[in-house]
# Entry
Amino acid sequence: MIQLAYDIPGGKQIKFLVLTLAFALLCFLSACNSCEDVNCQNDGTCLKGNCECPPQYWGAFCGEEKPPESVIIQSIILGPFRSTAPNGLPWDLTSEPDVYLAFYQDNQFMGASNMLENEAPGRTRTFSAGDLPIEINPNDLLQVRVMDYDTPSERELILFEYFKPYSRGGAFPMQWVGAGMSINVTYKHP
Ligand SMILES: [Ca+2]
# Structure
């Protein structure tokens, strides 16, 4: 083959071209196993020229977002709320309200937190890992109701807020901030 290259006009150029191509191929093959020019995004790590992605990303350079399987509420910081019920009276006549959170998606009850007894309306309190967590659907709007527990059959709605659990391209925020509360979350991926 190379002998043929010598026999035709411009053969030397062809030989040079063949050698150059062979060299380029060798460089390319060795570069395949090198991480020198591989920039993995989103905390991906390069291993033998390939990006190993964290569970929430995929793709050659970990640039593609993977939708979560579910969202886990880790803690909720509930700020001060109004001190009186809509009728103008205090939430409880003889003590402070007994506060808990109820979670709804698509009009379905998803679960409730533990109750904090005798919570003064003016203070900030945290519902933490022991009071939660609640696993929710990433695709349905979440309604969080702040409730005052009176008796097994009587509860009063203090306030509610809506949160969107997952937005594509939103880079998985660890905290959602609302007017009256903020929610710390983690994302579960398959
Ligand atoms: Ca009450």
